[in-house]
Amino acid sequence: MIESVDIYPTLCELSGLPIPGGLDGRSFAKVLEDPTLGHRDHTIQVYPRSKEGVGQVLGRSIRTDRYRLVEWKAWEPQENSADLELYDYHQDPLETKNIASAQPQLVAQLQALLGTHPAAKPPVKAAGVADPKLAERETLFIKKDADSDGHLSHAEFMAGQKDPDQARQRFVKFDIDGDGKLSRKEFVTSGKSGS
After folding, report:
1. Does 105 lie in the same domain as 48?
2. Would you call 114 helix, strand, or coil by DSSP?
3. Helical H runs in the chain?
4. Bridge partners for 69 per DSSP
5. Structural domains counted in the chain
6. Alpha-carbon span 142 to 165, nearest angstrom
7. What are 79-115's pLDDT values in tens digits?
8. In angstroms, what CA-CA distances link 130 with 6, 122, 185?
9. 146 φ, ψ (degrees, to nearest 5)
10. Does residue 93 contact residue 112 with C-beta atoms inside 8 Å?
11. Is residue 120 part of a domain?
């Protein structure tokens, strides 16, 4: 099982380039040499859609070699508000029969696996932001805020930086109140010209 995020590190390895740190994916080059090797025991997919009477919902899906569980939730979910779909690819490869209600233990097991992945975050609505650069910074803030606490720790800010020495200096510069973390405002407005 391979995710699209695995393609970039695989191409790096196959071309002899160093694989950058902080990537979500991992190389599957060894699987190309020996297809009997395993790569992942499951994959994850996230997909938004509109649901009548609810509005925007987000589908988070876990796919194993046999099953696919999809958990549909509103962006601001209520307790136990998820719609669930479960499909058995051995019995139903075309996903014609949702068996979630008949398999509560399997659903719970796959939901626990899904829970090991970071929760998806709502998209940034840039319509109210006049400056497109600020909208990009808003989006980047949400991506970097791994623990969704509304602040960027030094580690969150540094993750994926291509110029770590300069990034450390930017962090200090952006941290206007000197509390060792960046608020959304500090990150978005201070970083208009940098990352």
Report:
1. yes
2. helix
3. 7-15, 29-33, 104-114, 132-144, 154-158, 164-174, 184-190
4. 62, 86
5. 3
6. 23
7. 566 889 999 999 999 999 999 999 999 999 999 999 8
8. 35, 20, 15
9. -60, -35
10. no
11. no
